[in-house]
């Protein structure tokens, strides 16, 4: 394989790359490549401002350049406004159907003093994958919790408060489950041999009885934001960039990734 590469400036920044067959003649392919590169440069001069597309890592910083750049970015899910939108029940949103199992809800907001359009995207395919993974995690967690609660139920506490504290501590780390329980007195006859009819059993400790089950409300709340992510752009003119185009431009990043893979493959083959 022959790879034509054009660079510019003192830093030799690459501006054009074109692969050809290893049998190709330089006399034929070089003039053609030059003509194509020239056409590209002419088109860039006449084109409108670029739309810079990035993942969520760039969101917080790219906002600062909104006066100079038109950008499209995924929104980090840990932002307060993002959490609120991601967790909004589907019934309270007006969805617009898009292609290939996607749908979106669009709103205009001001964040960090920059007016933006946010697009909440739902993917049915991603939802099914994520819920399947969640179900496995819930099952795995139940198995682990069952063992832990069983061991706890076999402990005898010296006082009821100690038993309640142990229950509270364990209950605090259950993202998918709930437990109903009682802390009961453990009574025994302390005298050796068969107890008489008049003897009274004494309290020797406290023990837990419990029922562990899935918490439907917790699980439903978690499933609420599965298959969802948020895109944002400072291009507030929808006629210049529709909701459908926002999703298309974001997904087109995979083309850049394929380009990097192609370059790595070429370098690795040498």
Sequence of strands across the biggest β-sheet:
3-4-10-7-6-5
User: How many structural domains are formed by the residues?
Assistant: 3
Q: SSE string, helix = H, strand = E?
A: EEHEHEHEEEHHEEHEHH
Unreliable residue runs = none
In percent, how helical is the residue content? 40-55%
N→C terminal distance:
11 Å
SS strand fraction: 25-35%
**Overall pLDDT:** 86
Enumerate how many helices there are, as a single number.
8
Structural class: alpha+beta
Task: Please tally the β strands and state the result.
Answer: 10
Rough outline: elongated
Radius of gyration using CA atoms only: 31 Å
The profile of the biggest β sheet is: 6 strands, mixed
Could you describe the 3D structure shown?
- The structure is a single chain.
- By secondary structure, this protein is α+β, with helices and mostly antiparallel strands.
- The protein folds into three domains: 2-46, no CATH class; 53-76 and 88-119 and 230-269, no CATH class; 128-191 and 200-220.
- The protein is 40% helix and 29% strand.
- The protein has eight helices and ten strands.
- The chain has helices spanning 26-46, 59-62, 80-86, 124-153, 160-171, 216-223, 243-251, 253-269; strands spanning 2-8, 13-20, 51-54, 70-74, 96-97, 102-111, 114-123, 177-188, 202-214, 228-233.
- The strands form three sheets. The protein has a six-stranded mixed β-sheet, sandwiched between helices.
- It starts with a strand and ends with a helix.
